[in-house]
Specification:
The chain has 15 helices and no strands. The protein has 338 residues and is mostly helical.
Length: 338
């Protein structure tokens, strides 16, 4: 089977999964009522959230420049911003194609080799992965009591603390237990595990993460890189939290809830479907329903508002970036001929 046919099958399956998830999520609520709630959203807060998100993309472009600089490549931030937005635009149609697409754009506009550009993308993803892990831990700490209550009442059907709930509510205990079991399993089946393709992929990912972590040693402006990394995630947080105020049902949620929704939404967006469609909506609406006692209808309305607004922004700005990339590529080719 040719690689083209494999890619067609793979992307067709991801599209089918996205459509199935969307239909599943919509089947759990009254769609007409949900649309009415979405229409009541205050646009000022939504636009503010979108603006902050676009600001994070520009900061990401600037951070990418910092990673390219030690290799001798110094494209303008405006050009890396175009490449970044083309990448986000590509992800709406082909999952995981954004990274390759933005590297290809920079190759055509500024002659940055794709392999080297992709290496810097792996590096920045490594730092983003670390930030996500930190935020997961922080959200667990800030909302520890709420999560404990959820497991006690929803999982064990108890309104008072139980021994089982106590086990769940002790992250050090069950965390150590899970790690111990995984270690025993790994040692026993080590030789068989080494032959698994998924093992090689995980090992390669870990190596990429470590290389990304240590690559900061070669940066000329480490402090600026750290600043942009923190700034990007602050933007992600505020684009989530501020949109709470666009809907009455979510307007009273705490700042800690914004952190939880950022993490949950991020996990939904990482699902292997185009633009996180369906997965993002299910993750976010379920979190609002399970952790914060909102109705499924209100939770889904919030998910639709934030996901639709951000997607439209990517379509508009990303579409313009595709056109700009074509223009810049042609201009570069003309300059090379002179």
């Amino acid at each position: 089977m040719s690689s083209l046919i494999k890619n067609i099958i793979k992307y067709s399956l991801t599209l089918a999964l996205a459509v199935a998830l969307v239909f599943y999520v919509l089947s759990t609520v009254n769609v007409t009522e949900m649309i009415n709630k979405v229409k009541q959203a205050k646009l000022s807060w939504v636009i503010l959230g979108v603006s902050i998100n676009l600001l994070s993309h520009f900061s990401r472009a600037r951070r990418w420049n910092l990673l390219l600089e030690p290799m001798g490549y110094k494209p303008k931030t405006s050009r890396t911003f175009v490449a970044v937005m083309v990448g986000y635009f590509a992800n709406l149609f082909l999952p995981r194609m954004g990274e390759i697409s933005r590297c290809a754009v920079l190759k055509r506009t500024d002659h940055v080799p794709i392999d080297k550009a992709f290496g810097t993308v792996v590096a920045e993803r490594a730092f983003d992965f670390i930030c996500l892990i930190v935020l997961i831990g922080l959200s667990l700490i800030l909302e520890f009591n709420r999560l404990t209550t959820f497991f006690s009442e929803k999982v064990f059907n108890k309104t008072t603390p139980t021994a089982e709930a106590g086990l769940i509510s002790n992250p050090f205990l069950w965390g150590s237990g899970i790690l111990g079991l995984c270690a025993i399993f790994f040692v026993i089946f080590l030789e068989k595990i080494k032959n698994l393709i998924i093992y090689q992929k995980i090992l390669s990912f870990i190596k990429g993460v470590l290389e990304g972590i240590f690559s900061i040693r070669n940066l000329k402006r480490k402090n600026e890189f750290i600043f942009h990394t923190i700034f990007i995630w602050l933007c992600y947080y505020f684009m989530t939290y501020l949109v709470f105020f666009s809907l009455e049902a979510t307007s009273s949620l705490s700042p800690a809830a914004g952190l939880v929704l950022l993490v949950v939404g991020g996990l939904g967006m990482s699902a292997p479907v185009q633009g996180g469609f369906g997965a993002f909506h299910e993750f976010v609406s379920s979190a609002l329903e399970g952790f914060y006692n909102l109705s499924k209808l209100d939770g889904l309305a919030f998910a639709v508002v934030i996901h639709t607004s951000q997607t439209l922004a990517v379509i508009i700005v990303g579409g313009a970036a595709v056109i700009a990339a074509l223009f810049l590529s042609r201009k570069t080719q003309i300059d090379d001929l002179r």
